[in-house]
Amino acid sequence: MGEGKQGAMVVEMPNSINQNPITQLQNKFKELETNFKGWLSKQSIAVEAVVVTATSGLQGAAIGGFMGTLTQDVSSSLPTPPPAANLNPQAMASFQQAQALAGGPLVQARNFAVMTGANAGISCVLKRIRGKEDVQSSMAAAFGSGALFSLVSGMGGPNPVPNALTSGIFFALVQGGLFELGRKFSQPPAEDTHYVRTRSLLSSLGLQNYEKNFKKGLLTDTTLPLLTDSALRDVRIPPGPRLLILDCIQRDPELRKRRG
């Protein structure tokens, strides 16, 4: 009777209760993000561009506002020339550029909102039109965001249009370089065709950790039928794995035939 009562009290807890609250929050956020992206992909190109530009602009404004708090002290230390100051255009341009780079939270929030929003919006439109995201689209978006950033921030000085073009070109070149660098490092390493059969054999035996030993000893797929205990010992493979490898080769009809 006691055992029955004790057994009845055993209740299986749902996985959601046992999960870490932070993990639950992350899963919920990912689910919302996936649903939002799915909804956005079904909208027209104009709606998607507006939403992407707005959300990216808000993120940029938050980043710019935070950075503005860090540079606020620098901005307040800059001298303010009187309205009738007789400054040459070059000196005034330098002063305006310094103000743009060291503005307060609101100034930097505006600048970063324009830069990130324009970049995301242009990228979104080009991706929908061209059907792909490549270095050309990335550079075009960076050019537009750089030019608008120069115009809005006041960094252009007395020649806003030429400086906007220069800033756009600079942003495009930097973004293009970063895009190619990221693509290079994100690509998986090319599979070594000389070790395809060897890798498969070792994986089937759970000995994939010894692949580096094979490569160090130049024991490629072509040498599999010729392997001996002595050869495996020379590349520092322990006795147990050596026996498993040789036994697997012996039982493989194709390798046994090539071994003669």
From TrEMBL:
Matches recorded under InterPro entries: SAM, SAM/pointed_sf, TIM22
Query: Gene Ontology terms, cellular component aspect?
Result: chloroplast inner membrane; TIM22 mitochondrial import inner membrane insertion complex
Which keywords, in A-to-Z order, does the entry hold? Answer: Chloroplast, Membrane, Plastid, Plastid inner membrane, Protein transport, Transmembrane, Transmembrane helix, Transport
Domain SAM: from-to ranges = 198-251
- Please provide, alphabetically and separated by semicolons, the GO molecular function terms listed in this UniProt record: protein transmembrane transporter activity
Per the record, membrane topology reads: Multi-pass membrane protein
Q: Where in the cell is it found?
A: Plastid, Chloroplast inner membrane
The record's annotation in Pfam families points to: SAM_1 (PF00536), Tim17 (PF02466)
Q: Which residues form a coiled coil?
A: none
Entry annotated with the keyword Glycosyltransferase: no
| Chief location | plastid
Q: Which family does it belong to?
A: Belongs to the Tim17/Tim22/Tim23 family.
Note the subunit structure.
Probable component of a protein-conducting channel made of HP30-1, HP30-2 and HP20 that mediates the import of transit sequence-less proteins into the chloroplastic inner membrane. Interacts with CEQORH.
Q: In its UniProt entry, what is this protein called? A: SAM domain-containing protein
What is the protein's species of origin?
Answer: Anisodus acutangulus
